[in-house]
Amino acid sequence: MAHILLAEDEPVLRMLISDTLEDEGHQLDIACDGEEALQKIKLHEYDLIVLDYMMPKLTGYEVLVHMKRLSDKRNGKVMILSAKSQHTEQEKMRAAGADAFIPKPFSPMELVRVVEDMLA
């Protein structure tokens, strides 16, 4: 069982992802925007952080940039979810520290497969 932070501003998608990952036995913390996600990252350590690219207050990219500045905490891998699936966007996210990029829309099965690969 992994401790995962899910930061997604869309309520229906947030519920789908959290239900899917909890059904797989993972413990989830939820953030509804980038600012809330960053606050949780400062307080807790996570095995995996799942960030929506486009969120209010701070984008997933901005959260990644702030995470690089936090030297007192070591968190696990970072996955970005985004409708912006252009190669340049993916490269920008990887350069900022993302370990995986899943374009929206995606299937719950695809999400589970990528999460399990990242946690292996």
UniProtKB/TrEMBL annotation:
Family matches, as Pfam families: Response_reg (PF00072)
Positions of post-translational 4-aspartylphosphate modification: D52
Keyword Phosphoprotein (UniProt): yes
Gene3D superfamilies, sorted: 3.40.50.2300
Source species, domain of life: Bacteria
Record flagged with keyword DNA-binding: no
UniProt xrefs under InterPro entries: Bact_response_regulator (IPR050595), CheY-like_superfamily (IPR011006), Sig_transdc_resp-reg_receiver (IPR001789)
Keywords (A to Z) from UniProt: Phosphoprotein
Response regulatory domain: residues covered: 3-119
Listed CDD domains: REC_OmpR (cd17574)
Protein name: Response regulator
Organism, scientific name: Brevibacillus choshinensis
